[in-house]
Amino acid sequence: MKNYDVAVVGAGPVGSTFARYVAEKGLKVAIFEKKKEIGVPLQCAGLLGKKIKDVNVLPDEFILNEIYGACLYSPSSTMISMRKKEEPLAYVLDRVAYDKYLAQLAVDKGAELFLNHRAEKIDIENGEIHFKDKKISAEIIVGADGHSSIVSEAFGNNFKSVHASQFLIDTGKNSFDDDYFQVYVNSKISPGFLWIIPLSKSTARVGLFADFDYQDLSGILNDFLENNEKLRDAKILKKYHGRIPIYDSKKNIVNNRALLIGDAASQVKPTTGGGLIIGFKCAKIAAEVVHESISSQNIDILKNYQKKYRKMYNTELKMQLKVQNTYESLDDDNLDSVILKLNEKEVGKIVSEYGDLDSQSPLMIKLIKSGVIFSVLPNLLSRKIFGL
Ligand SMILES: Cc1cc2nc3c(=O)[nH]c(=O)nc-3n(C[C@H](O)[C@H](O)[C@H](O)COP(=O)(O)OP(=O)(O)OC[C@H]3O[C@@H](n4cnc5c(N)ncnc54)[C@H](O)[C@@H]3O)c2cc1C
Question: Is residue 140 scored above 80 in pLDDT?
Fold first, then answer.
């Protein structure tokens, strides 16, 4: 007899959400978290598309700011902007408090939470997790242990991720239009990018992800602040860093008695590195499949999770990979010219109508069908990437 029906490794937002779903279905669930305190240190910009409210509970108290629009800056500072008029397009969250809240919800539904429990070895065939001084067993083990997942390692998966750095800054004055987040692109950091996400008119999260180490990323952020007149004298209140997994369509996310969710499964958007909404949706699919597998005592059913995930995300993520490849192929002159042309064609209006932080394929299809992509990208590239 196993100790638990389901053992979840990692009490991040995705693991806690999954644990809540399976606890609600009446399964005996435990969550093992290596940290003493959930959610710290912050490793997120906390920007979530408005769809978050359809995919998980989000009480207003965790929303620090509502975002209505975005400004995209080319290497030479040509700017293109878009805005939703009536409703916010995204929210900026207090991620630390939200992570704690999601874990508490799982506990309220009956999940047992063990802090200070670092899983050291996983036996995916027998359903065992080994800690420093004990081991536990479960019918199914769920790896929700982030980008360097030990559960994923037990599958024989490779880790592919990039570093991200972020500063919390305070300018002490009215420096930001807090309705807009800002994105800066250039060929040095592509396919990564730099962001400014305002929490208020004077405070913001300024960060970037790119294929450099932390030190270099912090150097790029410092230079960015130094070269920006409005931000030059800003106080840096906090510095954070983290890793963003690289999306991998071939990653194996089910093996024996174990499956992976969230960053552990590289469930992130290739274009932005955002992982919360996709992770929450996959947690729901995984919970249904796990429940069915345990109810019918058939471990093979777990394979349906991988099939369902791929079916649901294949088109969207393939499209995002194309966007990412396009961005990566452009040098600074190309990027300037593309953004200038997009601006001339008033693409901001199309983006305002079709743009969605989480599913970018409707916008891309619109831009392809209307011929905009063909007219702004260098010819050879649009043919190579979009087959136009
Ligand atoms: C700088 C930065 C900015 C980001 N900005 C955004 C954004 O704006 N919007 C967005 O949607 N996404 C963003 N992301 C991505 C987002 O933070 C992740 O996708 C999200 O945290 C994934 O949640 P998770 O629960 O899968 O993993 P995590 O949040 O990484 O949680 C994993 C948990 O597992 C625990 N753990 C790890 N190993 C073990 C072990 N061996 N034993 C026990 N416990 C273990 C960890 O301590 C952690 O608590 C950003 C990421 C970074 C780095």
Answer: yes
Question: 138 with 106, same domain?
Answer: yes
Question: Is the CB of 69 within 6 Å of ligand 1?
Answer: no
- Check: CB of residue 46 under 8 Å from CB of residue 133: no
- Report pLDDT digits (tens) over 187-220: 999 989 999 999 999 999 999 999 999 999 999 9
**Contact yes or no for 70/43 (Cβ under 8 A):** no
Burial of 223 (0-12, 13-18, 19+ CB in 10 A): exposed
Please name which of 167, 166, 195 lies closest in space to residue 183, comparing C-alpha atoms: 195
pTM of the predicted model as reported, rounded to 2 decimal places:
0.93
Q: Which atom of ligand 1 is nearest to the CA of 118?
A: 42
Structural domains in the chain (count): 3
Rounded distance between C-alpha atoms, residue 363 and residue 368, angstroms: 9
Which protein residue's CA is at the shortest distance from atom 30 of ligand 1?
Answer: 146
Give the DSSP letter of residue 167.
E
pLDDT, tens digit, 9 for 90 and up, residues 52-66: 999 999 999 999 999
Burial 326-357 (b: 16+ CB within 10 A, else e): bbebbeeebbbbbbebbbebebbebbbebbeb
Using one digit for the tens of pLDDT, what is the confidence trace for 297-352?
Answer: 999 999 999 999 999 988 888 888 888 888 888 899 988 988 888 777 666 666 66
- Specify whether the CB–CB gap between 145 and 126 falls below 8 A: no
Range of the domain at 375: 317-386
Which of 228, 244, 260 terminates a domain? The answer is 244
